[in-house]
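Shape matters. As here.
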Amino acid sequence: MTDLTNRRVLITGSAGFIGFHTSSLLLQSGAKVLGVDNFTPYYDPSLKERRNAILSNHQNFELARISIEDGAALTKAWKDFAPDAVIHLAAQAGVRYSIDHPADYVGTNIVGTFNLMELARHNPVRHFLAASTSSVYGANTAMPFDELQRTQTPMSLYAATKGATELMGHSYAHLFGIPMTFFRFFTVYGPWGRPDMALFKFADAMLRDQPIDVYNNGQMARDFTYVEDLVRSIVDLVSAVPGSEPVGPHDSLSPAAPFRVVNIGGGTPTPLMDYIAALEKALGMTAKKNFLPMQAGDVPATEASPALLRALTGRVPTTSVEQGVAEFVRWYREHVAAAKG
């Protein structure tokens, strides 16, 4: 485990799916953590409250219940805590939701990120890390996706806003010397996941004997990333501060700035139907499947090149879909299905 004893880490989105797991591992690693979250009702806030209650049991965790779009409140929280590292995970997520609610994405993903970068400009930190997404690869078809590929063809506003934050980050890194790392996530899943994510929705429908919606007639593949693998990579990267020299052939460290983009994925895409089969096995039942065409804003496949992540941290995500889905089902039965009676 990475030793972050005495490090002061501000993490946005701490009550979210990935933020909760990242905060937990930071605390286990010895860091003092300030969580920033506004508990937005994009999905049931009670799940966020339950995650936050677990974090709040740790003496090195404190919460600022504020929005990153509220510049004044964010400035006060930042200055009171005085972080030496920032992990920015707060975002309006969801490819499909962005089609009907575009303003939410501009506000949280762009304005909120700008507020954080401005604070890092005036209150320097050792490392500013921020979440991006594999969705920025958009219409690219060359697999695997590596960090040096062009990302100017987003297929959704969600992807466009995340790509915009990468560009903003490079500008701030160049102009103000802020060491910045953006990590691109690849279809993260696991315990404490969001109710709008496919695995959660599939499990809920199957246990109610309802059909599941399978898009593109099941002809899809994803580089599924188990959440514990993901957050281990995030915490590893806290200490991998961009320097003056690249670490390998796929390092997208800019010659103009202390800036880097890193895929966090294992490079092992799984067909969607195999993912569903893993869930059927873990639940001990067969899903009723409602096959549908591709949805707007979606892509048929993703696959990460993990070369840079391996060069930086010495490891990449390895948890199999069968194992990860089984862990999710154990959590779901205990924390969700049992509560529903």
